[in-house]
Design goal:
Elements lengths: L2 E2 L4 E4 L6 H8 L4 E5 L2 H7 L6 E4 L15 E4 L7 H7 L1 E2 L3 E4 L6 H14 L5 E4 L3 E6 L3 E4 L5 E6 L2 E8 L9 E3 L5 E5 L4 E6 L7 E6 L3 H7 L1 E2 L4
Parallel strand pairs: 1-6, 2-3, 2-7, 3-4, 4-5, 7-8
Antiparallel strand pairs: 8-9, 9-16, 10-15, 10-17, 11-14, 11-16, 12-13, 12-15
Helix pairs in contact: 3-4
Amino acid sequence: MPLVFDGPLLIVGGGEVDAGMLAELAGRVGGLVGADRGGDILMGAGLVPDAVIGDMDSVADRTRFPAVTRIVTLSEQDTTDFEKCLYSTRAPVTLALGMTGGRFDHTLAALHAVARHASERRIILIDGHDLAIGVAGSVTLRIGAGERVSIYPLGRTLFAGSKGLLYRLDGLEMAQGQAIGTSNQAIEDVIEIAVAPGVQDPWLLIVDKGLLGIVLGGWEIGNGR
């Protein structure tokens, strides 16, 4: 059975993690999970994880965790430790830190996991600059006029239209190697991005990390989400 969290969940990976950012995020969430070596990072920051999940090939010493920490060892090698955490938990929104930066293949693996799971849960990748929000469907978000907005496809997505963006997305199909939406800009406080009817792949909405509180408080997603 998956571990269920009523509030936001923070999953910490073994990549680059800023101590100040980790402390700030830990104060916003209702659950802490380490993805393999991410458990060591949480303990090193003086935080007790609710669980450590992964194949346990990178944890320094699993006996260091207190009894309240659940250790979930999953030996299958078809998924990364981050994805193991995703399919082993449930939460209204999932923040992920330490999944990007550092090794490029780890960053790509994190995007792969978001593409596979964005249709079933809300995931936000966080790094030193940005939030990368996994979206499956349409989205309405109050971020403030003047904010940078980037859109990146995780497959192939046809957009029906947009409101509040400098460069409109009406009828634009995005796919890797074909078209992406880097460095658009909000020209209104509220932006709306609508995908076309039918099956559309998930995509990333990328904004400044300083907007996390606004995103958590005002995220509305269409298409049944």
